[in-house]
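Appendix B, record 7
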Amino acid sequence: NRFNDGEVADLGIGDRPTSFTDWSIASNANAYDVRKLKVFASGVPDAPVQPTPVPPTPVPSMPVPPAPTPPTPVPTPPPTPLPTPLPTPAPTPPPTLAPTPVPTPMPTPVPMAPAPVPPTTSGPAPLAIPNIPDSEGFQLVYELDIPTNPNYQFGKPVYSVDNHLDITGFDRVAYYLELDSSYVWVSMDTFTDKSSKIGVPCLSLECGDGVVRTEIQQIVTNVNIDSNVHDLSGSGYSGNVEFWPFNYSPGNYLNIPGASSGTFDSGDTNSGSGNFGSMQVHVHGGGTGYTGTVFAFNRFNDGEVADLGIGDGPTSYTDWSIASNANAYDVRKLKVFVSNVQTTPPLVDPYIANKNIPDAEGFQLVYALDIPTNPNYGVAKPDYSVDNALAVSDFSRIAYYMELDNYWVWVSMDKFTSDARQIGVPCLSLQCGNGVSPTLVQQVVTNVNVKSSIGMLNGSGRLGNVEFWPYNYSPGNALFIPGASGATYDFGDTCDSPNGNYGSMQVHVHGGTGYTGTIFAFNLFNAGAVADVGISNQLSGNPDWSLSFNANIWNNRKLRVYVAP
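Structure tokens (predicted):
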């Protein structure tokens, strides 16, 4: 019970031992570590033969005006009254269920006892990690709360910070792992020039450079360690990294001093297949004499309990392989840093650099989103791969880039808000926008520049208008946009705030000579239905792509949002 409002749900098997035997108002879902529901059916007839999918209709190079079509209104359902809450009974302990034994291939180590925290040291530049002098001047690239059961074979980690697209040059890399009260910082000379390859080397091609999977097994130099575990701390170590998404064997591939070919330790061999995964840093010379594992994060692709550890593991597998112990820690944080970052950012976002968009020079990326076919932003904000909104404080122009398979469009304009949180998808969840009220922007914008693979859209210095809201809307031309119809969904509609959840994120141009109408549209993003997406006017139906339900015909659906000073 209670699964619609984001509060703790009620769960139970059999009668609850209170007067509310159906578990109402139990608020006990957080009492269970495992909460699985499966639904089955029997006697299902054979599935009918599916028709051959029709390829997406290309966006034309020149529009043909459609015949007038009677508008299809977006239904605005009446408000649903909330049930009258029952009085909350006295707290009742959740039912005690007999635990199911889980086989453990290796003993689960006890989390390491912390030693005293190093004294506070200040320096001329900020410290990336307080009380760790070596972190001075390092810049955060990735931050991850490591799940107990990561499954990165189909998608990259859900980083809370991902700044790798902003990093264009560096000469040192550092990792900070925190497991409950134990921590380790380790920095080294860089082993790659690509910031996309210093994060978790997972099996999904969304990790790494997007072309080949990250496989790095090499010696690293000038390794510095600061930790409250064992005798790790020291500087000037020689070390080695073992980063790959595959299985591995104990063979000492790099002939690491002190490593064994008969056990999993600081010198193993990448198998090049499988999905176990290894993200390990080791040292084997110099420093204060410690040799062995600095930290390890293994088994992150198959949804099983991961391996985590700082220092050598307490078994013969000193690199924590097959420890299956991630669930032994309440805190599991990984941060990745670089230093001596190139201070002059690229003039154009590398992702769109090959599109030849002179207007894009000097714009800073704020959001990047792979648009899902069935977005459901009524309860949570989009899963942006880049979200730099809180780091943006002052700007004068805003730009959007949409890519649908081989079609793309760039559109920039004078700003319509000073809050970078309100330039992303205007979804119904209060996690979007300013966190107080949903974003609703319907206004004329100036100095609109457009560059597109669809030549008829190109232009500069145009007037335009934006229609950003999370609600239903009707065809009425609320702003009296020149050329817009009051009878069809196009570049001049009326928001039905605060009713419904259809949603509109549309940019249009109008006035003067040249193309008039929709530049891009992303609609129907709050309810989990197939969304509407399009570039230029839709030729049949509604010009602003309302009710097109077509997101699933595109394999590639990208949205990027920028600002410029």
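Remarks on this record: The chain is about 0% helix and 30% strand. Confidence is low (pLDDT under 50) at residues 47-123.
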